[in-house]
Amino acid sequence: xxxxxxMTGAPGQPNMNLPPTWQDRLGSPYLLLxxxxxxxxxxxxxxxxxxxxxxxxxxxxxxxxxxxVPYWLPLIGHIPNMAYxxxxxxxxxxxxxxxxIFALNFFxxxxxxxxxxxxxxxxxxxxxxxxxxxxxxxxxxxxxxxxPKSELRKYDAALPELMAxxxxxxxxxxxxxxxxxxxxRLRGKAGEFVTGNESLVxxxxxxxxxxxxxxxxxxxxxxxxxxxxxxxxxxxxxxTVPTLMGSDFLAxxxxxxxxxxxxxxxxxxxxxxxxxxxxxxxxxxxxxARRRILAAIYEFHDAxxxxxxxxxxxxxWSGVDDVGxxxxxxxxxxxxxxxxxxxxxxxxxxxxxxxxxxSDTLIFWMINRICADKALLEMVREEIAPYVKVVxxxxxxxxxxxxxxxxxxxxxxxxxxxxxxxxxIECLRLDTSSWSLKVVKQDFVLQGRDKAAQSWxxxxxxxxxxxxxxxxxxxxxxxxxxxxxxxxxxxxxxDTKRQVTDLGSFRPYGKDNNKVFVMV
Length: 520
Fold this sequence. Notes:
By secondary structure, this protein is an alpha+beta fold. The chain is about 50% helix and about 10% strand. The chain has helices spanning about 20-25, 30-55, 80-95, 115-125, 135-145, 150-165, 165-170, 175-190, 205-210, 230-240, 240-245, 245-250, 255-265, 265-270, 280-310, 325-335, 340-355, 360-370, 375-385, 410-415, 420-430, 470, 515; strands at about 65, 100-105, 110-115, 130, 215, 220-225, 390, 405-410, 435-440, 445, 455-460, 465, 490-495, 500. Helix 10 crosses helix 18 (about 360-370) and helix 18 (about 360-370) packs across helix 21 (about 420-430). One of its GO terms (molecular function) is monooxygenase activity.
């Protein structure tokens, strides 16, 4: 008789070639692992979904628990959603939840996302003993800007005095003095914004990073073609930074901003605390850029120290007297608390990043959006014409002198240019995506100014984020929120019988935005 596939065993022996049963297959580690993971995902989603749909009853004061968003992955929580498409993920939650607040889970931590302006104001006005951003600031100061971990206690002790120094930047008369200095620098450099020089050696520093090229247009005339973002961004930085660091700093370190932008591109990677040897090119470049940035500021602070002691004889730093009032005011605080040069450099590093990373890019967006609409461009030019005048100096030389900014009336621009100001506010709304973060130090009830509004219970250890961009793009607050409308923030004032603008909830540069926006 022919042998069948199922009769290969010896007589009296169990057959070893029987096909595996479904029980055998389920016992296989190759199948058991994915089944276990699938069950874990389903259980996590079911459990968090039940928690979301059955929140605990309100507390004694009627405060509700912040609605939690269900998730699939234990511990990891909503990290994959944010990594895949954070913008659409949080916008969808904004549109499908009520109350202006919802809670996400990041690595087991509870993160309350706030997009209601009234709740945002209530959070930002909390005392530091209740909700503070300093823990986040300390970490970023260390892992991003290079502040020595061993000196963080000195930073904590000096912080109130360091914050007090910002009066030279954010309030009068310091704000007006800084604006006037920036205005004078702008007046002197505006004619060199684009020189038309083809040689890299003859170009200004902001042109060298902008791929400047002199070409012939259709009419046969020479025109300059350049990458607008780096051109505007670097020009703005070279105009404003000397008001903080003095004129010698950029003269001695002309490539400083290339390193600052490199670090900015790797900011989030540095914020994770990952070391340089991790094979991520953007991270490695950011570490190298930070080392060069700190080396430059080390030298600056060494010269400033010697200047205060009357020992500065280095011709490279002969103009250190024109360092800004804010930086000068911080120097005695550093000395009082025993800050090392490394700690001082890291603190100024964070200042320079904060002063340039967002505002200089905003200037680019404003110029780009206005120039993209020829009719709007003409209207803005007509509006600012009485307050900004450019003249062409007469010259008998074969090569004409660069145009000169003759008039730059800051008060006129602030008070009489509602269209320009509305463009600025609209760029703030659409082209900035800032979030504010606080850590909850003790349980408290969060409620807007309206006492009849819903109140929410935030608990110790929670994180609270103010997602400004979620409000700025909310269709319930702005018609066609993703459309840039230059006149969106203009209105007719019945008292003065003229068009005016209102910043509303926008306060990105402190209390007096008027003196800041005109520098655009």
